[in-house]
From TrEMBL:
Organismal lineage: Eukaryota, Fungi, Fungi incertae sedis, Zoopagomycota, Kickxellomycotina
Keywords tagged on the record: Kinase, Magnesium, Metal-binding, Pyruvate, Transferase
Record GO biological process: oxaloacetate metabolic process
All residue ranges annotated as the HpcH/HpaI aldolase/citrate lyase domain in the record: 6-220
Record-listed substrate binding positions: R62, E124
Residues holding Mg(2+): E124, D152
Cofactor requirements of the protein: Mg(2+)
Name used for this protein in its record: Pyruvate/Phosphoenolpyruvate kinase-like domain-containing protein
Stretches assigned to coiled coil: none
Pfam family, any one: HpcH_HpaI
InterPro entries registered for this protein in UniProt: Aldolase/citrate-lyase_domain, Citrate_lyase_beta/mcl1/mcl2, Pyrv/PenolPyrv_kinase-like_dom, Pyrv_kinase-like_dom_sf
Amino acid sequence: MALLGLPGSEESKIKKSLTSPADCIVYDLEDSVAPNRKGAARELVFDALKLKSETGPELAVRINAVGSGIEFDDLNVILQSPHLDTILIPKVQSARDIDFVCRLIELIGHERSQPHVRIIASIENALGILSLKEIATASPQRVDALLFAAEDFCADMGLHRSPAKTEMLYARSAVATTAHAYGLQAIDLVCMDFRNPEVLVKECVNGRDMGFTGKQAIHPNQIETIQNTFMPSEDQIQRAKKIIAGYEISEREGKGAYGLDGLAIDLPVYKWALKIMQRAGTPHIHAGSH
């Protein structure tokens, strides 16, 4: 899954985004918008939501942080849209931040979009990491994903962001693990070196191997690489099919674990294969069924 973030105040980029191959477009009302452009950005984003198509990307809006003093102004505008899919809440520190937005969705959300507006909780500081469980479970109906924001996290902790990213290992692992524990998507950090495709590939592989299910993008050229890397490869899909078929045949024969290509295949490996097929969007048909 690729999330492309765009400044809500730049009309030309907003128009181009509606034909983007990204899975989700995030129109930003927060850090990328100057204080004197907040009002204009809200109107531009509201108008952009009207142009949503059934075959286009999911449309999300990143509001200003709860407690900033202007988050209500953002919500008062965007929640009037019948086309809003998702709200990205930045700098989430506790379940109270989620609760505040959920209450406003219920109170002033458009009757058409209100029942299904989802929330992405952006984790950007140490307190957010320590509150991951309560954030993830604050609203099972609406919280859909946890997102890790590296730049803000490093600023909060006073860390130097290194190419190896070992300074963020605990925080990223905590976000990905918590997301999986509660059935949420896990969205990894932005690759700031957007002109270097090799760096992006390495970051995508690293994030995928840590358990992230998607990644943020800041440039359209990053989208295809992110999508291709986070989707299972054809080799993985074919191996998963072999594992599933062999395990189910072995199980019906009362054997359970079996050998495949010199490796033992047991229940955990079978569950891994099912996950691969799920990520690939391929329906699983039990071996021998018609």
